[in-house]
Amino acid sequence: MAEIKIGNSIVGDGRPAYIVGEIGINHNGNIDTACSLIAVAKNAGCNAVKFQKRTVNVVYTAEELAKTRENPFGPTNGDLKRGLEFDEVAYRKIDEFCKEMDISWFASCWDEGSVDFISRFSVPCYKIASASLTDDALLKHHRKTGKPLFVSTGMSTLEEIDHAVEILGKKDLILIHTCSTYPSKYSELNLRVIQTLRQRYAVPIGYSGHETGLASSVAAVALGACFIERHITLDRAMWGSDQAASLEPSGLTRLVRDIRLVEESMGNGVKTVQESEIPVMKKLRRVGCKA
Fold first, then answer.
1. Which of 102, 127, 216, 230 is the most buried if burial means most Cβ atoms within 10 Å?
2. Quick one: pLDDT at residue 286?
3. How far apart are CA 178 and CA 209, in angstroms?
4. What is the rounded CA–CA span in Å between residue 189 and residue 169?
5. Are strands 173-178 and 205-209 parallel, antiparallel or unpaired?
6. C-alpha span between 62 and 154 (Å, rounded)
7. Which CATH superfamily includes the segment(s) 4-284?
8. Which of 128, 130, 91 is nearest to 112 (CA)?
9. Are 40 and 234 within 8 A, CB to CB?
10. Which residue, among 164, 118, 162, 161, has the nearest Cα to 137 in the 3D structure?
11. CA dist., res. 175 & res. 235, Å (int)
12. For position 287, what pLDDT does the model report?
């Protein structure tokens, strides 16, 4: 299985999971909130944080933007979508703060213009959202960056994933298993797909969780996921569509801790008698007793 260099980290089988705090739109258009979430991710032990970038008038139709939707930015859906987008000044602050905190950042870009926008910064990689998996033009545009790609496979068939892999190639590619409901039901997570994807594509496989708890994301690592992404928030009670499917600071800290403990526990698969077991063996086994 290939290994991929993401910034200063090597991602792949046998390597520590690359853990990403998905800030997404949970900053609610506030740069101070975004910086607070970056600090939360760093303090929890995440490798990176991720944002979402859209050119609103390209991603959404005029009809969709005109729909009534009460929100902190105004009465329409367009007010909301525009209010959640950071401009270049804000992203410069994000970039500077991440450098101060010594944590990587990148984004999922929903259109070609957003890829070009984010490319103004020295991000180590890009993520392609599940909703964009079938957008051939966007996939090809991402490839032109020359950066590693994380590709989410939620709400997609194997045939659609086959096509995306054919478009992108397998170089510097990590496929991400996920269920694209917020929050996801545990009965729909289907974590064994991680192994299915590993066998089918022979590339590193990750997991993006939208469930409310921690156990399944930890289990994903035991099943072979080398990348873990979870949405993060300062408080699940905050306004916003993604907050309920996000981890608060204490939950994120526990998640990173438990993943690292599981990784330490996995071992190499070779059955041996541990040095620490020898005194116990001498104390508890009957002398001369053989099967």
1. 127
2. 85
3. 6
4. 26
5. parallel
6. 26
7. Aldolase class I (3.20.20.70)
8. 128
9. yes
10. 164
11. 29
12. 78
Residues in the chain predicted with pLDDT less than 70, given as ranges, are: 1, 288-291
Unique residue bearing structure tokens 């998996």: 133
pLDDT at position 291:
59
CA distance 149 to 92: 22
Amino acid, res. 85? E
pLDDT value, residue 290: 67
The per-residue DSSP string of 134-159 comes to T-HHHHHHHHTT---EEEE-TT--HH
Tally of residues, the chain? 291
92: helix, strand or coil: helix
Q: Where do the domains of the chain lie?
A: 4-284
Check: CB of residue 107 under 8 Å from CB of residue 51: yes
Name 142's Cβ contacts closer than 8 Å, sequence gap at least 6: 109, 115, 126, 128, 149, 168
Q: What is the pTM of this model?
A: 0.95
> Can you tell me the distance from the alpha carbon of 54 to that of 135, in angstroms, rounded to the nearest whole number?
14
Beta strand pairing status for 18-24 and 48-53? parallel
So what's the pLDDT on residue 289? 64
Structure tokens at 182: 């917020």
